[in-house]
């Protein structure tokens, strides 16, 4: 996120992150509401993405109904591209951090591609788990580690005073696409929204004013906005793609 704020500026980045978070939340609500309505009309308990898209066209204007048999393939194609891109980014992110640690303890630098190969097998095994409830304990552990990581990063960010000098408040528009893509990647997880909602014991708690979605998105936007803003104000133009790479290795 600090790297995203470098591309947009700390003022534009803060406002933009909140706006993008609001738009993402609104779109997810619309998706879930559409699924509820289609399930009610078709009298089925749940639907996946292709089924929602197909039935939405069938229930829509006559002009769009002829595209219904094909829209499922289009949705699956975009989901595949989205998930592939996310996985690539995560692999690079994890491998870069492993390389940073390995380089500190080893005499010779480690090729980041070797780190990618090492984590490939565990990732394949994880992706074989099709039921999300079996991943819930690991997700809880990961969330705990993430919060600890946030605390450590915040310690290094706030231990020294930072200033807005030499920091860009509003960056040129040429950097905004990178900012938008980074924030959208950080906030969005559209690929698991319907599966997660369908796997919940009480799916109705997913939406609502104080539902799971709103609470989670408010917390995520708050944390990421703060991390991006203060991380950029601290490290400025020297901020890395992952802020963990800016942490002092000797500590």
From TrEMBL:
UniProt topology in membrane: Multi-pass membrane protein
GO cellular component: vacuolar membrane
Subcellular location: Membrane
Highest taxon listed in the record's lineage: Eukaryota
Keyword list, A-Z: Membrane, Transmembrane, Transmembrane helix
Listed transmembrane segments: 12-32, 74-98, 110-129, 141-158, 170-194, 206-225
A Pfam family recorded for this sequence: Aa_trans
Domain Amino acid transporter transmembrane intervals: 1-250
Gene Ontology molecular function: L-amino acid transmembrane transporter activity
InterPro entries found in the cross-reference section: AA_transpt_TM
Coiled coil: none
Main location: membrane
Name of this chain's protein: Proton-coupled amino acid transporter 2
Provenance organism: Bactrocera latifrons (Malaysian fruit fly)
Taxonomic placement: Eukaryota, Metazoa, Ecdysozoa, Arthropoda, Hexapoda
